[in-house]
Design brief:
The structure is a single chain. The protein is α/β, with parallel strands linked by helices. Helix 1 crosses helix 8 and helix 6 crosses helix 7. The protein is built from 8 helices and 7 strands, in the order βαβαβαβαβαβαααβ. Helix content is 47%, strand content 14%. The relative contact order is 0.15. The protein starts with 6 loop residues before the first strand and ends in a 7-residue tail after the last strand. Strands 3-2-1-4-5-6-7 form a 7-stranded parallel sheet, sandwiched between helices. It has 2 domains: 207 residues, Rossmann fold, CATH 3.40.50.720; 33 residues.
C-alpha cells in the first residue's frame, strides 16, 4: 500500500522500535517526523538518511516527552499529523516499596501521559484532514503483569485504556486508534544485553535466549523492529478501517498463556 501524502509523527524514534516503525512508514511513502529528547547532529542526519533512502520528507524534532508542553509542541511543529505513533518509553525495575518516586513519575509521564498530550494535539489536525490513525505502542505488559515493574505495567495498561477511549470518541469519524503490544523485540538495547546474560549464565547465545530471556515468549524468538513497523503500516491501511479500539499482540504467544 502507499501512504503517500500522509505525515507520520513517531515519538521516541531515533533508535529501536520507534526508528523501525519510522522506516516502514517511510517505505510505505509517508513523510515522517522523528523525535527524541536529544538534539544531536546524528539525529538530524538520521532523518536526512531516511529522506534520501525512501524519497520522502523526513525531519527530526526535539521534544522531551516527560513535559506536557513539549509533547503538544511536537505536533504543532510537525504542522501535519495524519499518523501518530506514541512509542516513547523508559523502564525501571524495583519492588513497589522501594520504587523511586522520581522514576515512577517519569515513567508515567513518558510512557502514558505523553500519549494523551500528543493525541489531544493531533486529533484536531486529523479531523481537519478528514483522516487519521493513532497507533499506541503498549506492550505484552499492557495486558499481563510481572513483578518489580509497577510503573511500566501501570503505564502500559493505561495506554490500552486510553486507546479504547480515543477509539470510542472517534468511532464515527475516519480516524482509528489501536495499540500494538509487543513482547520481546530485538532492538540494539536488547542486543547489548545478550553477551552479559551469556557470561552470567555460562550459556551460548541461542541457549541464553531460549532458556533465560525468552522464557515467557512461547515462540522462543524475538520480534523484529520491522515486524512492529509492518503491523503499524497495516493499521494505517484500508484493510484496517474497521479495526479500532483494540490491541494487536506481537509477542510470540506470550499473552496466550
Amino acid at each position: 500500500m502507499t501512504l503517500g501524502g500522509k505525515t507520520a509523527v513517531i515519538t521516541g524514534s531515533n533508535s529501536g522500535i520507534g526508528l523501525g516503525i519510522a522506516r516502514e512508514l517511510a517505505r510505505a511513502g509517508a513523510d515522517v517526523v522523528l523525535n527524541s529528547f536529544t538534539d544531536a547532529p546524528a539525529d538530524h542526519e538520521m532523518a536526512a538518511g531516511l529522506a534520501q533512502e525512501f524519497g520522502v520528507d523526513a525531519r527530526y524534532v526535539k521534544a522531551d516527552m516527560s513535559k506536557p508542553e513539549e509533547a503538544r509542541a511536537l505536533i504543532a511543529e510537525a504542522g501535519a499529523c495524519d499518523i501518530l505513533v506514541n512509542n516513547a518509553g523508559i523502564q525501571c525495575v524495583a519492588p513497589v516499596e522501594e520504587f523511586p518516586i522520581d522514576k515512577w513519575d517519569a515513567i508515567i509521564a513518558i510512557n502514558l501521559s505523553s500519549a494523551f498530550h500528543t493525541t489531544a494535539a493531533a486529533l484536531p489536525l486529523m479531523r481537519a484532514a478528514g483522516w487519521g490513525r493513532v497507533v499506541n505502542i503498549s506492550s505484552a505488559h499492557g495486558l499481563t503483569a510481572s513483578p518489580y515493574k509497577a510503573a511500566y505495567i501501570a503505564a502500559k495498561h493505561g495506554v490500552v485504556g486510553l486507546t479504547k477511549t480515543v477509539a470510542l470518541e472517534t468511532a464515527e469519524e475516519p480516524i482509528t486508534c489501536n495499540a500494538i503490544c509487543p513482547g520481546y523485540v530485538l532492538t540494539p538495547l536488547v542486543e547489548a544485553q545478550i553477551p552479559e546474560q551469556m557470561q552470567v549464565h555460562g550459556m551460548d547465545r541461542e541457549t541464553v535466549l531460549r532458556e533465560v530471556m525468552l522464557t515467557r515468549q512461547p515462540s522462543r524468538e524475538m520480534a523484529s523492529v520491522e515486524q512492529i513497523g509492518g503491523t503499524t503500516v497495516f493499521l494505517c491501511s484500508d484493510a484496517a478501517v474497521q479495526i479500532t479500539g483494540t490491541t494487536i499482540s506481537v509477542d510470540g504467544g506470550w499473552t496466550a498463556l
